[in-house]
Amino acid sequence: MFPWTKKKSLPEFWMNYANHFRTKKKLHLQTTRFVIFDTETTGLHIKNDRILSIGAIGATSQTMNIGDTLELYVKQDVYNPKTAEIHGILKEGSMTRVEEKQAIVFFLEFIKGAILVAHHAAFDISMINTCLKRLSLPKLKNKVLDTGDLFKKTTICPDKNKHYSLDELSAIFNIKKQDRHTAAGDAYITGILFLKIVSHLIQKRHFFIKDLFFRSNRKGLL
């Protein structure tokens, strides 16, 4: 049991993160910080599987900032060697690894006040929220955008009912798939995809940041 579960107060790192959401701020497309992120995991089971790595990159004013990045590898008690064929992450390796709690501390510090962006975001958000639950912490407070859903808002989407993969959208937008199936690599690819979709969307007259968000009646893991 973590010490903060014995009393009502939450740890300082959580409060520092949560304080960025206490006041409602006006969001503007040119000044809002977006954090595009991806997770690599031991599998697709939200409760039983674990995060192996997190990759994230910040973007502001429709530009990704390669100096504003985060890449974490998480120490593993739960591991599925079959998934290593996809992401290439071994249970033991030369990269520096942190405990799950420390990974969450770093991640919360990086994303505070930002809008999160991911491809098929419900899975990645749910994996992070499950980590938070294991630490007896609340769910993420950030607004979230899904590039799969955003693509369906464009006029170039041929089928609004299709579930588009990152590979399929990379092909449509002619994005090179460098470092595919690494968290940092997929975050970068998703970031380019996000900026291309936004660039297409803002060609509409009177486009506002609120037009990016999910419908209020969305369903899924979020």
TrEMBL record:
Residues 33-203 form the Exonuclease domain. GO terms for biological process: DNA replication proofreading. GO terms for cellular component: cytosol. InterPro entries: DnaQ, Ribonucl_H, RNaseH-like_sf, RNaseH_sf. DNA polymerase III is a complex, multichain enzyme responsible for most of the replicative synthesis in bacteria. The epsilon subunit contain the editing function and is a proofreading 3'-5' exonuclease. DNA polymerase III contains a core (composed of alpha, epsilon and theta chains) that associates with a tau subunit. This core dimerizes to form the POLIII' complex. PolIII' associates with the gamma complex (composed of gamma, delta, delta', psi and chi chains) and with the beta chain to form the complete DNA polymerase III complex. This is DNA polymerase-3 subunit epsilon. It comes from Aquimarina spongiae.
